[in-house]
Amino acid sequence: MAARHRGRRAAVVKVEIAPSVLSADFGRLAEQVHEAEAAGADRIHFDVMDGHFVPNLSMGPPVLAAVRATTTLPIEAHLMVERPELFLEAFAEAGADVIEVQVEATYQLYRVLTRIVELGKRACVALNPATPVEALREVLPYCSEINVMTV
Predict the structure, then answer these.
(1) Is pLDDT at 115 greater than 50 in this prediction?
(2) Cα(67)–Cα(34) distance, integer angstroms
(3) Staple 79 to which of 55, 84, 105, 113, CB 3.0 to 4.6 Å?
(4) What is the CATH code of the structural domain delimited by 21-148?
């Protein structure tokens, strides 16, 4: 039975394990994805960084496509990039099941989320710790998932 809060039924929250390939040994990437599957991972997480929105630089669609060919687990692409709208099609075509964008990365969050859904993918919004939760209020109906960052 779900918990109740102020007379309303509270949502049941499912916690999923999504190891990031950013910490993988890229020389053994397929093997390590299989190890994550065997260990019970629910999905595979890609931290995509452009060196602008965040100072680090990571991987792009070709790496995601290579992993897509080795696993049936859902893959989420977390776009920590400026202007995420420029990357949506490439990551959708590479095989991402979930495309996650930062609230702080675009002034067109509604358009970005609706485009993700149009591409047949689940839309997720990530929120930096310093950003007020109220920033999500108007886009919640367009999100399949929310990621509240802790770093």
Answers:
(1) yes
(2) 10
(3) 84
(4) 3.20.20.70
